[in-house]
Design brief:
By secondary structure, this protein is α+β, with helices and mostly antiparallel strands. It has nine helices and 22 strands. 15% of the residues lie in helices and 41% in strands.
Length: 525
């Protein structure tokens, strides 16, 4: 796109025929308010008309609005002109605007497209304001219009945030901080660096870049490098260290395709791990492709009261021609639904999630999966927020259920003879039911603080290394762990905080579960 200043300004050419669209402006309140409000209701957006002062032009505007209320008004978009982009490349704005605007064939369609483009441009986070103006096209082309997009680029490109959260893959809360810089190269790029430290001594340092749309790409692209350390000594007797790179190859509203490349090392500094874990202690390479389908029609992520959400994740590992490459197929499903009950803002949330992983390659029936890729249930996490696969169970600690194996026996009086390594599973299924409702106090209702009664159940099982031969569906269902409880929920724009009392209905002797009070901080996934 050539320099926007190099084109003649259509506003100067036709000063008496401009219509401006700015979602931040209010109505003029003049004698045409009734007509404008009818049009705004029809379009569903805040669109203001600012006709020029001469009475003749005002009469033409009145006639145009009446025609639009009666039926479609044909129009042809002759040109899209961009102004004010001193840093941002013009084609970045064109990619978000030109196609949608030029497809409009009526004035009504052009109004809707203009509002949608305005919202998309503001969502990029690159501009403090966006104003779209419609002007008449060249006189030799009747029924044509020029669309002028005038932007004001953001004055402050730095931003940052800090918070404490609980992730599904972590066994305790962590403190996370990040800093971001927008539009460094003028491509709408977003650069960020983050650091996270968990109360379990886990740590992660990462840096990444997000590119909204480039000339040769039809979808945004992301790249992120990370260094991660996780301590699982108290649960599975190993520490995991990994350094890797993730690439977002394709992403839109429903679909996401990622590539992951990471070098991992599993080690046991305590020398106490069970025989099954010791066989997995080594360097390995993760080279995988992951596809995610996500449809979320719920009205809220932290307190859904209506709608549904469905997530499907498919991952294939072992794409690198290396003997240490992890070869596996992994599939996860998650379905949640919220039904309003019509009193006290009450809603019933229920959901079911499942996942399975299996190795592939020569002799796969006798192979085992890596502990890093297996399913582990439990943790200080709300199942309502843990959308994306089987993860959380109220009342059960992280990696707190499933098959286990005694630790290595050594001649040490101080050694824990009752210690066990939890192995997780190749198959996992969870289910939840959550009844949320408002509290009687108005003070709580105004702040969104509400109560809930919940129940959940789940189980994991091993399928690899000939374990599948002894797997029985009936036995798997009979061994489901379950819990119920009641609690107070404090939703915020960033996370969901719960103070719950959990009662364990069913568990086995080796499971790590307790009845009592639990405090969770969960970020919607």
């Amino acid at each position: 796109m050539p320099d926007p200043d190099s084109k003649p300004d259509p506003e100067n050419q036709h000063p008496d025929n401009a219509y401006e669209f700015d979602e931040d402006e209010d109505d003029d309140g003049d004698e045409d308010d009734d007509v404008e409000e009818d049009e705004e209701d029809a379009e569903g957006d805040d669109v203001s008309f600012e006709p020029a002062t001469p009475r003749a032009v005002k009469l033409k505007m009145d006639a145009l609005v009446r025609r639009m209320l009666i039926g479609p008004v044909s129009i042809h978009v002759h040109d899209v002109i961009i102004k004010g982009n001193t840093k941002t490349k013009g084609y970045i704005i064109e990619a978000e605007a030109s196609e949608a605007l030029k497809k409009a064939t009526t004035m009504q369609e052009l109004l809707r497209a203009s509002n949608a483009v305005n919202s998309r441009l503001k969502s990029l986070g690159l501009f403090d304001s966006v104003m779209i103006t419609l002007d008449s096209g060249p006189p030799e082309i009747p029924g044509s219009a020029n669309v002028i997009i005038e932007v004001q680029e953001a004055g402050n490109r730095f931003s940052g945030e800090i918070g404490a959260y609980t992730k599904a893959e972590a066994k305790s809360s962590s403190v996370e901080g990040s800093i971001k810089y927008k539009n460094l190269l003028g491509y709408g790029d977003l650069w960020d660096g983050s650091i996270a430290y968990g109360f379990d001594h886990s740590a992660e340092v990462s840096a990444g870049v997000y590119l909204p749309r480039l000339k040769a790409l039809v979808a945004p692209m992301t790249a992120r490098a990370y260094l991660l350390t996780q301590d699982w000594l108290n649960f599975s007797s190993y520490k995991e260290r990994s350094i890797g790179l993730s690439l977002g190859l394709f992403s839109n509203r429903y679909h996401n395709l990622d590539y992951h490349l990471a070098l991992r090392n599993l080690a046991d500094p305590s020398q106490m791990s069970s025989s099954s874990v010791r066989r997995q202690l080594r360097h390995n390479l993760l080279s995988s492709l992951k596809y995610t389908l996500k449809i979320d029609r719920r009205n809220s992520l932290v307190r859904p009261t209506r709608g549904y959400a469905f997530v499907s994740k498919t991952q294939i590992g072992g794409l690198a021609p290396d003997s240490h490459s992890l070869r596996f197929l992994r599939q996860e499903f998650d379905l949640q639904c919220a039904i309003p009950l019509g009193f006290y803002h009450a809603a019933l949330n229920f959901g079911i999630s499942s996942g399975v992983i299996f190795p592939w390659g020569n002799g796969f029936l006798n192979m085992t999966t890596s502990p890093s890729e297996r399913f582990f249930l439990g943790g200080n996490l709300s199942p309502v927020c843990a959308l994306g696969g089987p993860k959380a169970l109220w009342g059960f600690k992280t990696r707190g259920l499933g098959s286990c194996e005694p630790l290595r026996q050594i001649n040490d009086e101080n050694a824990d003879a009752a210690g066990k390594d939890f192995h997780g599973g190749d198959l996992a299924v969870t289910a939840l039911a959550d009844l949320s409702f408002d509290l009687p106090s108005r003070w709580f209702r105004e702040r969104g603080i509400h109560a809930h009664i919940f129940a959940c159940a789940g189980n994991v099982a091993k399928l690899t290394a000939i374990e599948y031969q002894s797997f029985l569906v009936r036995k798997f269902i009979e061994s489901f762990r379950s819990s119920v409880g009641v609690g107070i929920v404090i939703p915020t724009s960033l996370f969901r905080m719960e103070l719950n009392y959990c009662y364990i209905l069913k568990k086995f002797d080796q499971d790590h579960a307790k009845a009592g009070f639990w405090l969770t901080f969960s970020r919607p996934s």
